[in-house]
Amino acid sequence: MKIISLILQSTVIVTSLSSLTSAQTMPGEALQLLDGDGDGLVTLEEYSNRMDTLFTGMDTTQNGRLEYSEIDSFVSQDIFDTADTNNNGSLSKGEFDIQVLKDFQGADQNSDGALD
Ligand SMILES: [Ca+2]
Ligand SMILES: [Ca+2]
Ligand SMILES: [Ca+2]
User: Which residues form the signal peptide (predicted)?
Assistant: First the structure.
């Protein structure tokens, strides 16, 4: 599952993330967006930090969980259900973090701990 990739492809979220961080970023330049120190590599730490910001930005009810209604414009129900491992209808930060880690490992094809 590539929930994070889907999220990053969303212009809506990239735009809101840009405004959150005041970054001068263009939609679609996901890797650049994630590369906190600008060295051309995205480490797990950089990735996690960015995803923390993203989580907070998407949690419009600020209850520490993502309900499907908060992210339904860019994540399908199937993907949401897969990430919602305890099937309670919302993604806790823990469930989100597990998905973030899975996506990072999936994207890190040569397993060197960084995306480039
Ligand atoms: Ca970096
Ligand atoms: Ca929420
Ligand atoms: Ca859940």
Answer: none
